[in-house]
Structures are given as C-alpha cells and as structure tokens.
Amino acid sequence: MSTHPEPGQLPDIKAVPFGDSALMVSVASGTAEERQAGSRRIREILLDVRPHGLQDVVAGVDSILVEFDCLAVGHAQLAQTIRLAAAGRFQQENGQADGKHFVIPLVVNEAFAPDLPDVAAELGISQEAVLGHLEDSVLSINLLASAMAPMMGTVQFPGQVSRCREPRTNVDPGSVMVAGTNAIIQPFPGPTGWKVIGRTPLTICDIRENPPTSYKPGDTVRFKVVPESEWERLEGHFLRTDSYTIEGAL
User: Fold this and answer.
1) Of 159, 152, 162, nearest to 182 (Cα)?
2) How many whole angstroms separate alpha carbon 59 and alpha carbon 55?
3) In what order do the strands lie in the sheet with 101-106?
4) CA distances from residue 178 to 86, 115, 126, 166 in whole angstroms, order as listed
5) Strands 13-17 and 168-171
6) Are 88 and 46 in contact (CB under 8 A)?
7) Phi and psi (nearest 5°) for 85?
8) How many Cβ atoms from other residues are within 10 Å of residue 235's Cβ?
9) Is residue 37 within 8 Å of residue 28, measured between CB atoms?
10) For residue range 54-88, what is the model confidence (pLDDT) as tens digits?
11) How far from the centroid of its chain's Cα atoms is residue 219's Cα?
C-alpha cells in the first residue's frame, strides 16, 4: 500500500482526539516505513498550509500531535481539514521522493564504542557482524529528537537492542548509538541511555550554519566504518551529502 493515494482518493489518515485541544494524527495503514513517511509529510503540509486554529505540530516516530485553539476550531473540523489538505498535496506530488542521502563515516575503537561488546553479546553475533548489519542498512530519518539529533530506523539487526541499565551522564558529540532497531547520533555533549557503538568525526549540527543541519526527516543515511587514520582528515567537517562517499552508495 502506498502512502500516496490515487487521484480522487483520500489518504488513509487516522485522527484521534487527544484532550480538548489536540489530535493524534497518523497514516492508518501500510508498512511501518510508509506510515512514518506519511506522518512526516502530513506534518510538512500542515506547517505550510497552517489551517485555522493550528498552534503546533509535534513529530513522533510514526504519528504527529496536532495542537490547536479549541475556541477557534473543533476536533472533527480540523481532522477533515487535515485530510483534505493532505489529499490535495499527495496527489500533486505523484509519489515522487525528494529526500537527500548521506553517507556517514564511523570510527570504532574501545574509547568510541564502549557498548559494542554488549550489543554483540545481546544479539548473539560478533562485533564485526553488528557493524556489518549497521553498514548494510539504509536508514530513514524518522524525526529530529532533542538538540536536532537524527533518530533513524530501521537497522537490520537480528533482534532488539536494549537500553543501558544505567544511563550515561555525558556522551561526546558524534557518538552513534542504537536501541531497539533504531540509531541516533549525539549532536552535542549530553546524557543518554542508548548504547554507543562508534563515533563519527563529522559535525552533524552547527548553530553557525544556516540551517544548522543538512538533514531533515525523510532523508536517508548509510554508515561506513572507516580506519582511525580518517579521523584527523574528517574531524569537524560539517555533514553534507558530499562529505563522504562510498562506491555503490545510493
């Protein structure tokens, strides 16, 4: 099932009241990837169209929370407006994807990947196999988490990765972390409960840049494990689509 409807057909959108002044909106059918992509697109449409009464749109992995002024518009009216706006835009786009693709180099050593042995033991595979699954996965950025951190899925692990029993109080920028079958990159120093399996020398978020990130939800990512000797050459370079390339990359 495609999240882009045929002409004249409304996208399959679910809108559930969430308190007096919000709707939880999602694409109701399709694969996980299609539902995630549909929710991302609906959010973009709403922020562009700005229906009457809209106050904010908060992104989730496969849904969005639409907050509105309940004195200006009701649940049912806004839900219908969302469906009509989405249907019109989805038809215009004709299913064409415009996301960017990034290849992100990853350096792995004892200091940069403290949780790699634990992840390998939990999945019942070697550390090399863990990294192989990560490299072989084309990950979609589902949402931007705290501090513009890109939350990505789905890593083709043979199982789910648990979170740390005791969260770390500080993780270095560029740390690549996994939990479940998702991956995330730490943009700035901060705490985390995700398991750290490597670090990229690239700067993924820089407030001096405009915009501060080159990526957005809907873009795709591949990781490439590189030798430690690459760290000095790439350290501090701002992540762009051409920051690092590999033969055969999308």
Assistant:
1) 152
2) 14
3) 101-106, 220-225, 139-144, 150-153, 182-185, 175-179, 195-199
4) 33, 10, 16, 15
5) unpaired
6) no
7) -65, -45
8) 13
9) no
10) 999 988 878 899 999 999 999 999 998 888 888 77
11) 8
